[in-house]
Amino acid sequence: MGEDCELEVRNLSCQFGSFKAVDDVSLRVRRGSIHALIGPNGAGKTTCFNLITRYLTPTSGNIIFRGEDITSKSPSQIADRGLVRSFQICSVFQSMTVLENVCLALQRKTGDQYAFWRSKKSLKNLHETAVSYIEPVGLLPWLHKPASDLSYGRKRALEFSVTMALEPKMMLLDEPFAGMGHEDIGGVAALIQAEAKDRTILIVEHNLSVVQSLCDRVTVLVRGKVAAEGDYKSVSQNDQVVRAYLGV
Ligand code: ADP
Questions:
Q1: Global pTM value
Q2: CA torsion angle 162 167 171 175 (round to 10)
Q3: What does the pLDDT read at residue 140?
Q4: Among 57, 168, 197, 229, which has the minimal tally of Cβ within 10 Å of its Cβ?
Q5: Strand 83-86's sheet: what is its strand order?
Q6: Probe ligand 1: pick from 16, 20, 23, 225, max atoms within 8 Å of CB?
Q7: ipTM of the complex
Q8: CA–CA separation, 82 vs 35, rounded Å?
Q9: 3-class SS at 91?
């Protein structure tokens, strides 16, 4: 595996009964890149994410992260190595405030979540660090509001800042723009771009104009198989991709 390869997926398959949802998928994600996984509904994108983070067990194949074979590791062992995902379904704690959700992630990172006493100074530091992740996603006005009060798009923004607060080496983002208004899409896209300077990002995204402007490389899945891979221009001209998207 080359020096600059952050994640390598080798011949990954996942079968549900007789149905192959992911069929011999190989994929290399370069360190520091924003790599998109696209494809029509049911192509196997979310299943791939579930396999990479071991929420599902592959039928066959290997997953190599930063040179280490993580295929047999647990989801928490994988997260501890710095490979963190955000979920398509909101995973923030609804009854906790925006600030508390991000503080919890920060404490989890330092293994400090069970401390029952903190000095005023360490609490202030914790809150300041949390705010540095909350401000860029535009959630400062909702700092002390429970997550349940947020719109769907703002919950996604909170989920994104929680993921960033874990300071992963690599983030898997499953449709981070789903449910967001135009104004928020621009802000979160800029944030993903800024984050990619320090980490690697694999993103499932339906909005092709976002993929075109944000992503360095694109892998297209169709019916569980890799149909094309390359930069946006080359994959968008691929016959199989055009057929899969336009249904012709
Ligand atoms: P995508 O994210 O590209 O829309 P998915 O990975 O969610 O696709 O699903 C790929 C295919 O696998 C779909 O046909 C889906 O119905 C099927 N599938 C996903 N999870 C399961 C499961 N746990 N059991 C059976 N079939 C599943």
A1: 0.86
A2: 20
A3: 94
A4: 197
A5: 83-86, 170-174, 200-204, 34-38, 217-222, 225-230
A6: 16
A7: 0.96
A8: 17
A9: coil
